[in-house]
Specification:
Elements: E1 2-6, E2 9-13, E3 32-36, E4 46-48, E5 77-80, E6 86-89, H1 93-101, E7 104-108, E8 127-132, H2 136-148, E9 153-159, H3 163-174, E10 187-190, E11 201-204, H4 220-242, E12 247-250, H5 255-266, E13 284-286, H6 289-301, H7 309-312, E14 314-316, E15 324-326, H8 334-345, H9 347-354, H10 360-375, E16 380-386, E17 389-398, E18 401-404, H11 412-428
Parallel strand pairs: 2-3, 3-7, 8-9, 8-11, 9-10, 11-12, 12-13
Antiparallel strand pairs: 1-2, 4-7, 5-6, 14-15, 16-17, 17-18
Helix pairs in contact: 2-10, 4-5, 6-8, 6-10
Length: 429
């Protein structure tokens, strides 16, 4: 292993790095950074390392499956340097211990501005949350955060095109409290558009062109993409101008392509050229998988054949077409998984058949509840940057970076569906 001091932080690499100065002795700091190669645009910016193989294959879907990652203990690994020299790749005890302790952060050194990550760390204390657009979804999400977020949210800002709407919801939310405990819930206040990014968490719930109930539009989410992408691009550029360092949360449909839109558009200069000076990939997350996971649980509770999902199941992929629900990762059944996936993907259509827009469960399961789990650093369902797209997986935010669940082994048929979901998302954007 090769150790370097960069801006006061210790950076370790499997191969020697040019232009980083002399090597130094390993430091016993609480956090260790590992240099990893990666694409400057489609590679992850940084992530928490939970398996040694992620140092060699941390950007793709393999990072979800320990059995598909390189294994340093199964045989000699090597790398060819730029001068043609072949060197062995070995892990020392210091790096292994850092992985075990949960304090190793991988950094993509090919991405512009990566050095800033060596100084960044998540702030402590309660967080400020700002929400853009207070329609059906936004107001329901707001109510959930108000009632349940007092432990992690300091205050909530709301912004909408209509001053009448924000005045209404500031007034409504201000009158929700417990007797004699008037500071238990976070305060809600109206925030001007120019101050939207004065926060720790920005929640994008704006949407344009939702088809009315009874319309013949079959894929409502993709119908919304073109118009919503334009809105996202505007606010992504605003986040860039403000130097926003918080978390951008995409809740509007289609969640996963809009998350990638936010990432890409924020990193373009005035000529539309990617320069990496906007949001880092890990600063953006899509919040749409929570309700799909909850819908799968709804059906699993009502059919004993599907009940394994409640203890062993997982959800992967986007909020909509491409989603796949596994009945179990331990006792995987293709037929049952296909059936549960179909029920889950078409659940919103059933609500429309009843005569209502399906927004309450998404606003709470994908929105408020998942956002609160994120702020608490707990496991939740959301879309993080993997394989060049925002892929829905079980994940959490930690002091060492975004951590995606590492399963011992994902069955081949299931992994094929996960791969198919990623390829589907690549065709959208």
């Amino acid at each position: 292993m090769y150790y370097y001091n960069v801006n006061g932080a210790t950076l370790v690499s499997l191969t020697p790095l040019e232009g980083f100065g002399p090597q130094v002795e390993p430091a016993n700091s609480w956090r260790l950074f590992a240099a990893v190669p990666g694409d400057p645009v489609l590679g992850r910016g940084s992530f928490k390392v939970t398996h040694p193989g992620q140092l060699l294959a941390g950007h793709g879907l393999e990072t979800l499956d320990a059995s598909r990652l390189p294994d340093f203990d199964s045989g000699p690994a090597s790398a060819v340097l730029s001068d043609g020299t072949t060197i062995p790749l070995e892990l020392d005890e210091n790096v292994r211990q850092a992985i075990d302790d949960g304090r190793l952060t991988a950094v993509n050194t090919a991405r512009p501005g990566w050095e800033a990550l060596l100084k960044w760390s998540p702030g402590s204390g309660k967080k400020r949350v700002n929400i853009l657009a207070i329609g059906d979804v936004g107001s329901t999400l707001l109510t959930g955060l108000k009632l349940l977020g007092g432990d992690v949210i300091s205050s909530i800002g709301i912004c909408d095109l209509s001053d009448q709407i924000t005045a209404r919801w500031e007034f409504e939310m201000g009158q929700i409290s417990l007797p004699w405990q008037y500071d238990l819930f976070p305060e809600v206040e109206v925030v001007a558009p120019e101050n939207l990014f004065d926060c720790d968490m920005f929640v994008f719930v704006a949407s344009k062109g939702i088809p009315p109930v009874g319309s013949q539009v079959k894929d409502v989410r993709m119908y919304q993409f073109e118009n919503n992408a334009k809105i996202v691009a505007h606010y992504a550029k605003m986040a860039r101008e403000k130097g926003f360092q918080g978390l951008w949360c995409a809740v509007s449909d289609p969640v996963d392509p809009l998350a990638k839109t936010a990432y890409l558009e924020s990193n373009k200069d005035e000529n539309g050229i990617f320069d990496g000076k906007g949001l880092r990939p890990e600063q953006v997350q899509g919040f749409g998988l929570g309700v799909m996971n909850a819908r799968a649980a709804y059906f699993a509770k009502r059919d004993a054949r599907l009940a394994s999902f409640l203890t062993e199941g997982r959800s992967f992929g986007p909020h909509g077409t491409g989603l796949f629900i596994a009945n179990s990762v331990e006792h995987y059944d293709e037929a049952l998984s296909q059936e549960l996936t179909h029920l889950t993907v078409t659940a919103n259509l059933k609500m429309r058949e009843i005569g209502f827009k399906p927004y309450v469960a998404p606003a709470l399961s994908s929105g408020a509840l998942s956002l609160l789990l994120t702020l608490r650093g707990e496991w939740h369902c959301g879309s993080v940057f993997l394989d060049g797209v925002y892929m829905g997986v079980k994940n959490r935010y930690t002091p060492a970076g975004v951590e995606t669940e590492l399963l011992p082994r994902i069955p081949d048929p299931l992994f094929a569906h996960v791969r198919e979901a990623a390829e589907h998302l690549k065709t959208i954007l």
